[in-house]
Amino acid sequence: MAFTHIGLLCSGGDAPGMNCAIRAVVRTAISQGIKVTGIRRGYAGLLRGEFSPMNLSSVGNIIQRGGTILQTSRSPEFMKPNFRKTAVEIMKAQGIEALIIIGGDGSFNGAMSVWNEHQFPVIGIPGTIDNDISGTEYTIGFDTAVETAIEAVDRIRDTAHSHARTFLVEVMGRNSSAIALKVGVCTGAENILLPHEKVNHQKIFDDIQRGVARGKESSIIIVAEGPVAGRSYEIQHVLRDMYHMDAHVAILGHIQRGGSPTADDRFIASQMGNLAIHALMDNKFPVVTVFNAGKVGLNDMKNCITKSDHNFTEYQKLAETLSI
Ligand code: ADP
Question: What predicted TM-score, i.e. pTM, was given to this entire model?
Fold first, then answer.
């Protein structure tokens, strides 16, 4: 099938670099004579018919901007087959012949169902700071989120050192360990606490005491947030009540989501956006653009609809070894 008109949306959590992908999709499509309709606010906007025709200048001056110009959302309705049927009818009524989705594994689950139930062509582009999608080693936004967290931890380290303090710095990533592990290694953290791990308070205390004994002035413990942000406070209380240890808490929160995308995020997103259009033109769907072994490529969407904690726990050991 030769496509003449496609829809494009972002879904789930926003991530820096989504705009680079939008720009690449729109400009590649137009260069190939394909019309692009931007769908605002994800699947929820699709169901409400929030459409914006995209032209070359709609994506001008966005490559450096965080977030997504199309905005994004979570849509509980889209979990239900009757709403997905309506969504397909709405797209067909607009003349849209295929849908490109920039989002995470949840968004790809929705897209996969659209294909399975209606054979409506879908292509996914992985965009989430959590880097937690199966079938790809990288997701757009991860590098920027890591850079932002590193910068914040470096600042915290300055004050931690000046006051000889221990800080628990909580980083984003829900159940994913990816941000915590990379930030921990890159900031010389004394410990990295992963989302699913039982916290070993005795070990934290012993590690810090060992550091103090050799004259160490500060300690940074990176805490992966887990399903509910704020678990650092629990850890702080146990350290205080059981070990009489005074640790300060810094929760980085949403500052990790925004900001101008790094070179890696811009570069990978640009390639993925471009490849998504070429995949469609080659009638390859449902697929996801992926990044594996240093290269952008395609993977069947069915391989990218589960979470994968690229849980390189050896980085946890590395951080501890290098910070003794
Ligand atoms: P992400 O795409 O970042 O993983 P979510 O998990 O919140 O984010 O999913 C985004 C949206 O994708 C949801 O609000 C919902 O509309 C849709 N979605 C998620 N999971 C499914 C599913 N199993 N079936 C259909 N749609 C889904």
Answer: 0.96
**Structure tokens given for 316:** 């946890």
DSSP SS3 for 36: strand
Q: Is 74 touching ligand 1 by the criterion CB < 6 Å?
A: yes
229-256, pLDDT tens digit by residue? 899 999 999 999 999 999 999 999 999 9
**Do residue 180 and residue 240 come from a single domain?**
yes
Residue-wise pLDDT tens digits, 222-232: 999 988 889 99
Coil vs helix vs strand at 11: coil
Residues in the chain: 324
If you measure from the C-alpha of residue 181 to the centroid of ligand 1, how many angstroms do you get, rounded to a whole number?
25
- Same-domain status, 111 and 211: no
The verdict on the CB of residue 75 being under 6 Å from ligand 1 is yes
Domain CATH for 222: 3.40.50.460
